[in-house]
Please model this.
Amino acid sequence: MGGGLAGLAAATLLGRAGRQTLLLERAARPGGRAATQVERGFHQNLGPHALYVGGPAEAVLKELGVAAPGGRPPSGGLAVRAGRLHRLPEGPASLLATGVLGWSGKLEASCLLARLPRLDAPTLDGVPLATWLDRTVTRPDVRALLEALARVATYADDPTRLSAGLVVRQLQAVVGAGVRYVDGGWQALVDGLARAADGAGVEVRARCAARELVPADDHVVVRTDGGDLTAGVVVVAAGPAEAHDLLPADPDLARWRAAAAPVRAACLDLGLSRLPRPRATFVVGIDRPLYLSVHSAAARLAPEGAALIHVAKYLAPDQDVEPAAVERELDGLLDLAQPGWRDAVVTRRLLPRLTVTHAAPLAAHGGVSGRPGPALPRQPRVLVAGDWVGPEGHLADAALSSARAAARAALAASAPSG
Ligand SMILES: Cc1cc2nc3c(=O)[nH]c(=O)nc-3n(C[C@H](O)[C@H](O)[C@H](O)COP(=O)(O)OP(=O)(O)OC[C@H]3O[C@@H](n4cnc5c(N)ncnc54)[C@H](O)[C@@H]3O)c2cc1C
Model:
């Protein structure tokens, strides 16, 4: 159950393997956090979404025959510090030119960036980002830059707890193959997966929430709004809280739910009739946890000549959000990067408290290698999938990688005996 990317992928893999598969989704349509809203020709994801090129998500999409065309964000990014714009150090030339680092900082940063591809990320899984930076970086300006890049690559603003192994993996992926914005928004992925599910004979039942799972020796009863169903195996492709609500007596789910540290962001999705400064397409906050990117500069997301922009603030754990205050902060970043934008607004949507991932890979849990599932130790007929599950990837990469692992485990659990 759960019709986001993970649930759609797991169901399709099970359907293709010949299993009779029913996918329950409590919302009116599948998609979850990968859904895209189209308004007046602007395709707005739920906040900024970028697919890691060559990552686990793309591998699963390819396996299922789902194309994800689009484009890479253009280079020439900017960094904002103390209310002023600078070049974002992305390569040797911008590193030399940037105003966010002094000369010693430029030297230290260039050595570190040169070493980055060779760093052994798994050895840093249990090390907090802040501890790793204490060991690795001497200059405060370099530290501030790395913390900013870590936020962009992970969405998390939690250096004292976040796994340095995750940060290194994500930065290696960004400087390696990079990311892609998807034409038409992530709805294209949802629609492609929904078509693949249909082709695999999966029945998708929307507006049908699962309320409780009652496992027995050789089956699981799924209590839903529409009555009881019986399944050989259930894949719960939802968050740890939702999974625990379905099986409240399961001690592992209770523990995983309590341990999960969600990553949240405040997002402003904006459609502009024109872009006042066409070259200012990407801005990273150095001294504040802010992000701005013109996604339509890389993918087909807006009418001809218009621009689709995502602006975001990475929220610290347990940070209180006052929507009007965060909106003023995000507007302020736009004033700086795209002066005159207010006269060009066609669509505008503030989403002040989005859950980016249900659980940040924390150093104390062993980073990504310490994430739970997809198997539940005490429930052989129930599996979990999602961006908080399994030892591979972050965000959608984790969601789709764990979906594949959950589908394989479900096939093994439901294999005909003899
Ligand atoms: C602002 C923002 C930015 C992001 N940026 C990126 C990015 O750049 N790159 C990236 O890789 N990822 C990104 N992500 C993360 C990505 O969107 C998610 O990791 C991915 O979509 C999760 O898919 P999922 O299927 O695991 O979960 P979800 O999409 O949350 O799907 C779960 C589904 O289960 C359904 N459900 C829950 N409970 C029940 C129930 N009891 N019965 C039936 N149905 C139920 C829900 O309605 C939902 O449809 C971002 C997310 C956000 C919010």
Q: What stands out?
A: The CA atoms of residues 174 and 232 lie 41 Å apart. The pocket of flavin-adenine dinucleotide is lined by residues 1-7, 24-27, 32-34, 46-50, 209-210, 237-238, 242, 265, 267, 354, 356-357, 386-387, 395-397, 399 (CB under 6 Å). The two ends are 28 Å apart (CA to CA).
